[in-house]
Amino acid sequence: MSNRPIVLIGAGGIVESAHLPAYQKAGLKVIGITDLDQQKARNIAKKFNIPNVYDSVHQATIHAPEHAIFDIAIPASGLVDLLPTFRNGSMLLIQKPMGENIKQARQIKQICRQKDFAANINFQMRFAPQVTEARKMISRGTIGKLHDIEMRVTVYTPWHLWDFLEKCDRVEILYHSIHYIDLIRSFWGNPIGMLAKTTKHPEMMNMASSRSNIIMDYGDIKRANITTNHGHKYGLRHQESYLKFEGTKGAIKICFGLLMDYPKGTIDSFEYHILNNEKETEWISKEICGTWFPDAFIGSILNLMDPKLKEEQMDCTVSDAYETMACVEAAYQSNRSSPIPAN
Q1: pTM
Q2: How far apart are the C-alpha atoms of 146 and 134, rounded to whole Å?
Q3: Which residues pair with 199 in a beta bridge?
Q4: In CATH terms, is domain 6-125+296-312 a member of 3.40.50.1220?
Q5: Domain with CATH 3.30.360.10 in the chain
Q6: Which fold has domain 128-291+330-334?
Q7: pLDDT digits over 73-125, tens only?
Q8: Which ranges in the chain belong to alpha helices (H)?
Q9: I need a labelling partner for 263 at 20 to 30 A (CA). Which of 84, 115, 315, 342 fits?
Q10: What percent of the chain has pLDDT over 70?
Q11: With b meaning 16 or more CB within 10 Å and e meaning fewer, what string describes 215-224?
């Protein structure tokens, strides 16, 4: 594994809570950081012992070694203007989403090709330790043939932590449920189509949306459902945040504590159930080392660093991420379409 130096572009909350703790845990070297808010960049540099705070992205690109990875964590609206400033052949890890719409995603894809970037989009949920374990079990046939994937989120999300989202025309699907759309794609590929409805919450009217129902259509046998409600402020008792896989021989259920009581979070859990025709069976708990935040962020950057992997072998390439963005765009188109009258 090539331990390339990392330069951070952006010093927001996700960098402080996930990127940098992950890189510290993995022993990766972060050599510099820059942000439009220089004081914020200096504070984070001091906290995580980052030796260089650059005045601008331009300065960062000038002083960074050629083999550095630029870890970009800025609002999606700024990517189209930012990416051309990097030198040809740069290695980039770009925080999702890949732009704010399919037009920007197409532009980003074109820029990356023209500039010959080695670039991935940071859909890090694919690398969450619990997801990795589930993927291994499914690949081994432990739960039989997978036919049902469900993600359900009923939590209270403090959206004010990301104040830039109030200015966005698209929020819940683009900035949150996109994780689950991408994750389901990583198991089953592209769906036949998307059905979706995303809505506001009466106490979050300044947000474009904070609740969604999404169906990814994989035909008459496979079911893929995503249901999210970020306005459940009635305590932890009935909050839930789980990913469930059902197969012909068993099932797996992962509870992500991160999203409940955010940002403190609660404990994760991993359970599985294997059918046995001869006797009644029960759910079995399995302890998994690591969590979505920060451990999944280790996987996404190591995937980019691995010199043995060619682009077609990598997860989360720009080309693959574009397909996730196409699903997101289809979900928003579905949301705008007229429902069939019930009478």
Answers
A1: 0.95
A2: 11
A3: 211
A4: no
A5: 128-291+330-334
A6: Dihydrodipicolinate Reductase; domain 2 (3.30.360)
A7: 999 999 999 999 999 999 999 999 999 999 999 999 999 999 999 999 999 99
A8: 13-14, 20-26, 38-48, 57-63, 79-82, 102-114, 129-139, 178-188, 295-305, 318-336
A9: 315
A10: 97
A11: bbebeeebeb
